[in-house]
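Reviewers of the previous submission asked for a worked example of the structure-prediction workflow described in the proposal, so we include one complete record here. The input consisted solely of the amino acid sequence. No template or homolog information was supplied to the procedure at any stage.
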Amino acid sequence: MDALAFVCAMPMELRPLSKRLGLTAVTVRGVRLRSGTLDGRPVVALATGMGPSLATQSTERLLDAADVDRVLVFGITGAVDDVTPIGAVVHPALVVDGETGAEHRPDRLGGPEPAGTMWTTDRITRPAELPALRARGVVCLDMETAAIAASCERQAVPWSVHRAISDRATDGSVDDEVFHLSHPDGTPDHRAVAAYLLRHPQRIPGLVRMAKGARLATERAAHAAIAAARTVR
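From that input alone, the workflow returned the following structure tokens.
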């Protein structure tokens, strides 16, 4: 039986899923993964790193290394409005690559009726850009889903997306400085964080709120991805 593959960007997104499923670290044909079972079915999980380029490279290495029946993309995403609750799971009907315009339609696995568009981009989206995106039906932003989808489609592997809202693009809380507080693999850059807090002590409460939102969203996304995987026949 081929494995279900859970794919996210950052270790912080992978952690709750790995804990819930009791996954262990393995290396498959040179690719470092987490491995285990879900209801007796083999599963693997991978954090690709941040951004489309790393997402493409890591997903293609995964699909070349392991026998994968389906990919479930999960993790956090940013809302483009002030209404969607932090922690809400998004079920987009369409994922669009913001750089190329390429469109990708996820395979539905139970749950609510898909609606809206997820917009994938590797640059900071300014609040002034959001009205035009909302007019196009965009409901959230991320950095990897379109790239993962394209890699899956090239190898005829069905995929779905299970992301939860962690923050709001409307409040401008994620700027270039905040974005670069993480390494490309998604782990915190502790030296950069310390320097940032020294420069901007007034932003500490906002960062604490963001961290709480991220923790909630990673838990909700992991739960949603596992629930969806249980519907696969």
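The two ends are 11 Å apart (CA to CA). We consider this example representative of the routine output the project will generate in years two and three.
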